[in-house]
Every structure is written in C-alpha cells, then in structure tokens.
C-alpha cells in the first residue's frame, strides 16, 4: 500500500520513527529541532488521509518515547531493520536521522551513539555519514 507518491506505508512508518528517534536522541524531545522535524513532514508531501495518519503515527511515537524510552528504541530498531537489505531506503533513513540531529548545530554523544546503532541496524557504514557532517 502506498500512502503518497512513491512512499510505501511501511517506509513512511519507518521515516516517522527515525524522525522521532532523532529528536529524542538525548532522552527527551528536543524543541530546537522541532522546525526541522516539521519541515521533514512537509517534505513528505502527504495530503488528506495520509497526512492525518502520519500525524497520528507521530503522536503515538512521541507518546511511546515519553512513556518508555528504551522499549520504544528497541521497537524502532526492530521496525527499521527490515531495510538492512534495501540500501537505498536504509541510506534515506540514516540521512534523515543525521539531518535532524545536526539541525541544532552539534551532534551530542548520545546522538552519535544512536546514529551508530541505527547504522548497524541498517547495515551501513556510519563513518561515511559522520565524516560527511564534520
């Protein structure tokens, strides 16, 4: 099932999860990254039911991260791991994560640790992504 353009539903869900992983990378919602998060939602170009569904998924993800951060992390990594064999999607997910964590100007140690874990989960070389951002 596709929700908008060429974005399959599973990939949309993974993108939303990665966006929230990025803004919660330091254990709490990072308000300074909110504009970038909103820009990424707009860039998805979702309309109608797809837009409504994506916002509901985002609210649910945020609530899960607020309620039980570590279990939510495990669930996010499990969800995105299906893309470890699809390098194009894996790349887009890690670039999305990096774009959001970099949007406040620095990459914290927690953000780098999660970037490394996400890259490992997606079977990508994190050094390539970190080197591009320094």
Question: Could you describe the 3D structure shown?
Answer:
The protein is globular, with a radius of gyration of 14 Å. Helix 3 crosses helix 4 (69-80) and helix 5 (87-102) runs antiparallel to helix 6. The chain has helices at 9-23, 34-43, 48-67, 69-80, 87-102, 109-121, 126-133, and strands at residues 2-4, 7-8. The longest helix is centred in the middle third of the chain and has 20 residues, at 48-67. The protein is mainly alpha-helical and 134 residues long. The protein has seven helices and two strands; from the N terminus they run ββααααααα. The model has no long low-confidence stretch (mean pLDDT 90).
Segments where pLDDT lies below 50 for 5+ residues?
A: none
Derived structural class: mainly alpha
- What amount of the residues lies in strands? under 5%
Total domain modules = 1
Tell me the distance between the termini.
38 Å
Q: Would you count the extended β strands for me?
A: 2
As a percent range, the share of helical residues equals over 70%
Annotated CATH topology: TerB-like
Mean pLDDT: 90
What's the CATH architecture name? Orthogonal Bundle
Question: From N to C, what is the helix and strand string?
Answer: EEHHHHHHH
Rg result? 14 Å
Shape, per Cα inertia axes: globular
Spatial order of strands in the largest sheet: 1-2
How many helices? The count is: 7
* CATH C-level: Mainly Alpha
Largest sheet composition: 2 strands, antiparallel
Oligomer: single chain
């Amino acid at each position: 099932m596709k929700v908008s353009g060429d974005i399959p539903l599973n990939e949309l869900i993974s993108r939303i999860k990665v966006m929230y992983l990025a803004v919660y990378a330091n254990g709490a919602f990072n308000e300074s990254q909110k504009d970038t998060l909103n820009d990424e939602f707009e860039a998805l170009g979702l309309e109608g039911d797809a837009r409504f569904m994506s916002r509901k998924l985002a609210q649910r993800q945020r609530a899960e991260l607020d309620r039980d951060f570590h279990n939510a992390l495990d669930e996010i990594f499990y969800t995105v791991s299906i893309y470890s064999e699809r390098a194009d999607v894996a790349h887009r997910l890690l670039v999305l994560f990096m774009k959001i964590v970099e949007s406040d100007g620095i990459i914290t140690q927690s953000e780098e640790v999660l970037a490394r874990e996400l890259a490992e989960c997606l079977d990508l070389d994190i050094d390539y992504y970190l080197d591009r951002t320094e």
